[in-house]
Amino acid sequence: MKSQSMSSLKIDNLQLSQQGKLLLSLNEEVKGGEVLTIMGPSGSGKSTLLNWLVGMLPNDFYANGELYLNQQIITNTASHLRNIGLLYQDPLLFPHLTVEGNIAFAMPKGDKQTRKDEISEALNQVGLAGMEKRCPQNLSGGQQARVALLRVLLSKPKAILLDEPFSKLDSQLRQETRQLVFEQIQRYSLPAVMVTHDESDAIAAQGKVITLDALSLNKAAS
Amino acid sequence: MIVANTLFTRLVRNSPYLLIALLVVPVLGGLLGVLLPAFGWFPALGANEFGLFGFIQLFNTPGIERMVMLSFGTSLISTLLAFVITVLILASYFNSPWLKRIQRLLGPILVIPHAAAAIAIGFLITPSGFLSRLVSPWLSGWDVPPDWLFPHDPYGLSIILGLTLKELPFLLLIALGVLAQPEIGKTLKAQHKVASSLGYCPMTGFFKVILPSLYGYMRLPILAVLAYSSASVEIPLILGSNTPPTLAVAIMQWFSDVDLSLRIKASSGAILQILITLSLLGSWCLLELLVKKCSASFLVNGEREYGGMLIQRVTHLITTVMLSVIGLALVAMVLWSFAGFWSFPDLLPQQLVTLHWSSALLQMQTPLFNTLVIAISTTLIAIALTLFVLEAEQQNTKTISAISGFIIYLPLLIPSIAFLFGLVWLFEQVNSQHAYINVVFSHLLFVLPYVFLSLANSYRRLDPRFSTVAASLGVPPSKIFWQLKLPLLLSPILIASALGLAISFSQYLPTLLSGAGRINTITTEAVTLANGASRRTSAVYALMQMLLPALFFILAWAAPKLFFRNRG
Predict the structure, then answer these.
(1) Which of A83, B415, B513, B517 is the most exposed place for a label (fewest CB within 10 A)?
(2) What is the pTM of this model?
(3) Is the ipTM of this complex over 0.85?
(4) A222, pLDDT greater than 60
């Protein structure tokens, strides 16, 4: 597990600007198992930052700086080759596939039975045992969120981005799911970047918190 | 919602019944009027006994299997091709600015009447057509037109080409319309992003994530296209072989034969046509099931890349070829309409003259007048009725029932050749001899569904709070309708009107049959001329067919801008 212990996501001297106006600048490294939390009001450039990290920066933005994943430069790698998993506030499960299908879709190729066993085991761990053949639409919100999490994790990403991942869950569910997500991030030792509005998310993440404000003067606090 | 009981609200409340009656009575009556003679009951001929001799006669017709095969094959293959190309274009240009550009290039083709499109394609592929001129003599060595059978080839390849080119823009626009719906489009795009973040190349992501969901929204339009193309008359008439023709064309010839005894065989043929259309729809659904079964494991096997680059290149090629075919066909038609002496294999005519235009425009006056009168009356009725029905929906605060929603599309799903002849019989029964009224009535069957389809979305999406505010100010429902909703909806109403006019302009069979051959429009003339002697006159008529709808669409688009110019 040597490579995992070395895993890190490094944002090197990033400057994001729109039409010549500087939106934000950032210089951070996130180690495996750590969560970097980005907070700030809408319009502060949070989603632009996420778009840059996954390689989907819209044309009217301009970025300067490099992105390293496990010491490899991926600034100009196509988004589908980056190995960066994404977890949104909506579970975005594929309606034409079963729970099992959704997770299998994300997993690397391999022996059918091995993949099946892996899925069952993972479902078991998050309290969804026996739900393989269910339709995602018939699951509760919390169950959907957990399937979406498994889908990302079993795709074996090298880093994970969380885009307001808990904002659509009610408070009880929110705590449970949040705990589960952070546990799994540590278990897989993934560098994670989380964008959120919610103070309690930031506290629960127990990592560094960066607050962006609309004027792009970044304050860092732990 | 509590609605005041005024003349206006009563009128509005009863309009859905009128709409349903206007669509159901002719279609069902027409079907009955074909069903009875099909089974031998045709009092005008003294045939008063039910029997199967119509069908026996039908199946004894030489070449009947070929007619059926041709109808079945051309429509299935063309729909399949149009669907596959639509999917390839979507997959290759998803998230690319080219998708919008292709849409803009193909959009206008939608309003080109089938007859005009067929004439244009004929000009391209005929032995002395533009295509063989392009490669002669430098490449092909041809000094005289080659001896090929296009158009009118016995395998229906020309028909397939014509149908595919007409169906493709429709399917593409339907798909883009689905993706443009805020709810669906956003979710699908986000899911595509998820697939991308899971390592799927954009093309594979499209096929595994977007297509299965998108297809569900496209199924009905696809089936409508399939049903339409299986029984369409214009394209096979102009581009098809006549030995034998497709079943629909043969039925039309039997019905219009001077020998009235052929009517019974023709009616049996119409029933066979319905069976063919139904079996086509069944085959499509079976095919769909098969593909679903076979692709289930492919969707989740974890493979992320299937030669996406190759598929993309093939799609670039197909798109380019298709757009060139369309462009060349148009150029060829314009050239023919101005051509003086034009010997093979010259690419361009030796001289350009305006003679064909000036003489055709002189002949055209009556058909043009008929075309406009019929189209404008049909569209006015269709627009008024549609608006009333949509208003009734809002007063009842619920959308019309699923059955009514289905009935509106009935005339588009049932092969028109099957019920139009019965409709003519029905006109005779009620002694309606006014040809204009009969034609308007039958055009309405095809114009109403499209106008409804085009207006319903905008009307339903209008913010209901406008009316609530107005009502709270003491404004009566009629005033809200006339002075608030209609002005707000001016743009969509004008576009729907242009669409209605375009649909009416393009009608061939309904005009021919309901008008008992006495009413000539630009379209009936164009079809008659298409296989006639003068390619030049034919080109002028086909171009007129394209210019008319284009003119009204431009008017519909420009008028609101002129009206509201002063509002800054």
Answers:
(1) B517
(2) 0.87
(3) no
(4) no
